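User: Here's a chain of 276 residues. Predict its fold as tokens.
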Amino acid sequence: MKSDSDANALPAFDFRSRAARRAARPGGLRLDALLPHAIFVAALLGAWELAAARGWFDPIFFGRPSGVARYLWEHVPTARFWIDLGWTMAAALISFVLGSALAFGVGLAFVAWPALERFAEPYFSALNAMPRIALAPLFILWFGLGPGSKIAVGFSVVFFVVVSSTVAGIRGVNDDHLTLCRTLGARPATVFFRVTLPGAVPVIFSGLRLALVYALLVVIAAEIIASDRGIGQKLAYLGATFNVNGVIALVLVLAALGVAIVRVMTWLERRLLHWQ
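Assistant: Prediction complete.
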């Protein structure tokens, strides 16, 4: 049994900083968890640099960390780099927005009218099975070397990914919740916006994350095939001139950009699901 002094005691105040409290949460950023990765990456880069300096492999074909760092230092701050990155990101984002908007509408139509989905399924399966990169020359022929062809390639990937996730997410909502809302007299619009859509958000956002990353990848691939500007065109030029350090540097930049995209989409999903 607690004493009166224990019952009246004030709760202990946590004097740790906000960053320390955040790091202590499950899944938080912890220095003791980052330290092994930092040591591993440092050892890997050191071994790579040593092997290149000793001539154990040809840095012309494999590059070296010092050369990659030099390229990043010399080219990332330039206006040309950011213009190329801007063109690539603009094409990827436009294709993502257009493809997601149309795919969401088509997904809702498939859920509302299953007969329409059964009719369109063979055609959608055939179109989705086509390799998009193989279609890139055709899109370039139709839309030219500018951003139009890159948007078309990205759109063709985003659309099918988001359609599938939208249909799966909406149909995965608990039927008991929908039945209860209808029994209580809720209107269809209220059921959709208050129950169906929030319940489908996790699955839909999984598709959106994949779609945005895929859009960036296929846009870059299309730029490598033929383009007048963009990061992909820069990669093609560096590869043709055997500038391996530059290729690796741009690949690292794109990898960091992909991680940032996933983190932003995850943060946005959590904001939309803050009620859970």
